[in-house]
Write a structure and sequence with these properties.
By secondary structure, the protein is mainly alpha-helical. The chain has two domains: 54 residues, no CATH class; 71 residues, no CATH class. It is 48% helix and 10% strand. It contains five helices and two strands, in the order αααββαα. Strand 1 and strand 2 form a beta hairpin. It is flat and about 65 Å long. Its EC number is 2.7.1.11.
Length: 126
């Protein structure tokens, strides 16, 4: 197919992906659609844990150090009245967010998905 100008494609599906009706999206379902509707030669490959993880890049290592440093700073600055926090990323910056706000947003995402309010779910995920 490359000779005719067509390109190869890779379709990646997240574990736990669901469609608008809440039905699971599986690799086998996607395979069937591609074969039946597009008449394309298709194969399914499920990556194992080692392949998914791979070796960390230099960026991964630096990011881990920066997030760890931010967590240590949060501990050093904490008082008995300090609200619990989560160290997360905003762009490429390690930032602290209130733990309970993170819990609230996580529950709100789950509720938006249960309600099939996909736009809100995406907005809440950031």
């Amino acid at each position: 197919e490359r000779l005719t100008g067509q390109r190869l494609n890779i379709i990646i599906v997240a574990e736990g992906a669901v469609d608008r009706n809440g039905d699971p999206i599986t690799a086998d379902k996607i395979h069937k659609v591609v074969v039946d509707k597009l008449q394309q030669d298709t194969r399914v490959t499920v990556l194992g844990h080692v392949q998914r993880g791979g070796n960390p890049s230099a960026f991964d290592r630096v990011l881990g150090c920066r997030m760890g440093a931010e967590a240590v700073m949060a501990l050093m600055e904490a008082t008995p009245d300090t609200e619990a926090c989560v160290v997360t990323l905003d762009g490429n910056q390690a930032v602290r967010l209130p733990l309970m706000e993170c819990v609230r947003r996580t529950k709100a995402v789950a509720q938006a998905m249960a309600d099939k309010n996909w736009d809100l779910a995406v907005q809440l995920r950031g």
